[in-house]
Amino acid sequence: MKNCPKCNQRMPESEKYCMQCGADLTATSPAVNPAPPATSTSVQPPTSSPARKKRGLATVLLGIVGVSIIGLFVLAVIGGGVWWLFLKDNGKQDQAQTTTLEGDAKVEVSYEVTDRVPTAFYNNADTELIVVTLKSDRKTKVKIEVEIPNVTEKTTKEVEVGTTEIKEKIKPPILKSAYGPLDKAQQKPVQVKITDVNSGVVVTDGSKNVTLLSRNDMVWVSQDGYQNYKYIARWVTKDNKEVKELVRLAAEYNEQFCGQHAMVGYLGGEIMVECQLASIFAAMQDYYNIAYVASTESYTTTNAQSVKLPEEVLMENSGLCIDLAITVAAALESLDMEPVIIFIPGHAWVAVKTYAGSPSYYHLESTMLDSSVIDALDQGDQNWWQNSNQATVIDIKEARKEGILPYGEVETTPEKM
Which of 217, 257, 391, 416 is most solvent-facing, going by the fewest CB within 10 Å? Predict the structure, then answer.
């Protein structure tokens, strides 16, 4: 921090102008011009796009400088007059086989386990852990039990089997307590047990390993081509204590910029909305001294990219463009504001609605940690005008309505919400 030579007001070290009297401070704090954000291949544009909002804060913020993701199984057991065979290997379904004695029912069983589980958003995604295929020459009933011990709940299903082949998709949800240990990718066994309901005889009890991705791993595009961008809302941890501390510190910068030592969300009008956006960014620059780390991620591949949670960005003082956008979005959402994260090929930035439900947004280029806040806001606007035709906009509030909640909150469904 430094004092204004004219009015003695304390200002962040690299400010260009005093926000109280307008005195020129650039003699001791020249601005640094940032490199423009990288872009890469294209993604499909959204059906509707946020509009750019002309800022009324320019006269207030002028010159603010930023202080800156059952093996070869087991043979069926004789019991209750039913013989089973359960086969699976390396994620590919093998041809089912049948062993039978005269008078016994012929039942065929095979299954497929997914190659990898994106644990970060698996509970929300429309996918399954295992698909069991069943067929019999006569009607019977079986109970299927599936779980990954200490990782998922146990899911149990009873199904009628007959002469028509059926497929049972099973997806045991990940336990909330499992996310802590899932800080890196690992192999875990999927345990499968099938029981003849009529006789009580266990006909299959085996396991098959599956790859669990880290809770930090984001798979932007599934192998079937489905885009997973909306699940980035899982990383926007608005109730985390480090995020709340960022908001508290930002209030001090808001007093310097707009004369109010408070973060009031949408209660202060549109100019105050942009002022709070600027104050969050200034706190990240000046207090946390966060550094931007460049990345070659295109956001269009099926590869898993490690994405930091906001608390990790604040504690480690660095982040990629997506990490920084998420951190700002978390602080905004903690104020009951409505942030969005915008993706273009090779880059991501953050914006916030000018008022609740507004079609207009204030944009921020959150990688410009070595530049003034006003420059970062201007660059955010340029990002939109230059790339809106290929942008994907993720509205965090809309994601919440779909049940995509941040880490640390109880999982639920849109109906329960």
Answer: 416
Residues 235 and 295 in one domain: yes
Tens of pLDDT, residues 268-289: 889 999 999 999 999 999 999 9
Q: Of 215, 243, 271, which closes a domain?
A: 215
- Rounded Cα–Cα distance for residues 129 and 109 (Å): 17
> Can you tell me the mean pLDDT for 50-79?
43
Give the confidence band of 232 by pLDDT, cuts at 50, 70, 90. Answer: very high
Show which of 215, 234, 267 is a domain's final residue.
Answer: 215
pLDDT of residue 9: 64
Q: Given this model, what pLDDT does residue 141 score?
A: 87
Both 200 and 309 in one domain: the answer is no
Q: Which residues lie closer than 8 Å to 163 by C-beta, 6 or more apart?
A: 135, 136, 137, 138
The size of the chain, in residues, is 417
Residue span of the structural domain in which 311 resides: 24-68+219-401
